[in-house]
Here is the input.
Amino acid sequence: MINKIYVNSEIGRLKKVLLHRPGKEIENLMPEYLERLLFDDIPYLEIAQKEHDAFAEILKNNGVEVVYLENLASEAIINEEVKDKLINEFLKEAGIQNSHRFDSLKEFFKSFNNNKDMILKMAEGIRKKEIKDYDKRNLTDYLEDDYPFLIDPMPNLYFTRDPFASIGSGISLHKMLTETRNRETLFAKFIFNYHPDYKNTPFWYSRKDEFSLEGGDILILNNETIAVGISQRTHPIAIEKFADNILNEESKFKRVLAFDIPKHRSFMHLDTVFTMVDYDKFTIHPNIQGNIIVFSITKKDGKLEIDKEKGILEDILKKYLNLDNVDLIKCGGKSVIDAAREQWNDGSNTLAIAPGEVVVYSRNYVTNKILQDYGIKTHIMPSSELSRGRGGPRCMSMPLIREDI
Here is the structure.
């Protein structure tokens, strides 16, 4: 059987990747509700789409098959029963409690003849004025009279790294920290339960688990070692459960390294401060170069064993990856100002498409030059609008298949 998911490293040549082209959900961002929707700014959609298309073109030109979340999700709707299930779960998780409104919105979604259009509309969100018979039904409606949406948009959906993660020949389907993003994982749930190509994929984590785990915190360092960030958005108990599930003979992984990183937005996920670009080279935020606490999680006789280690990041990586030398490439180089500016625009967040070959944002020109000086081949993509979402090329991509290294 050909594995539809096969990812055993961060840097093996990328063969297939999942993206989501930003859609009208971006145009439903409003300044007064940015914090609610986890945005700091509002991208201009037309330019963001052109930038995203350029990103996809770079990948295609380098032998990568690009598939889109909205296509796979619509292909997973194999019959009317599955469509009903998706609509019901979506409306429930969107907080639609009034039975009349639930039925009205369900009828609205079922009216779409094209399933892809329905998926895109779910992502876009629903303004109150779009529903013809909208009227106030309960106390909550009156209290939220000024709020313009019946269902919130999903503007973070173009960061496909987070809702699930491809690991080995399976996936971890995530419980996201925020309600805003947790609805995104519904699409992955239906893909991996119903899509003809993906329905038999093993799960290493479930979106119904109690504690949050997000894909930006998961890095596959090699075919035995996975790094996971204990971050603002990934809970340590989730990491233990994930480790207990994945450290088995089926997955072949032997160790999970849990990195304790600062718990605030500029260090949102591990991959915003640390990505792998070659066998022995990593981009880093300068603030994590010093001492860092790492927990090595292994499994013996069916029980997890946890060892705490505090040391220099370089030494920890050399130890667990069996390397004689490690190069840590600082975002922004030696300049505090350049580092802060380019870190804000995800200068440390690179997507490796092969060993020593990465996709990067054009605006991080200081870091890009340093990468080139280290012998890293950089594919530079436009980034004026996509970067406003606070995520880089790695954040915007979920590898489905990589070659072994």
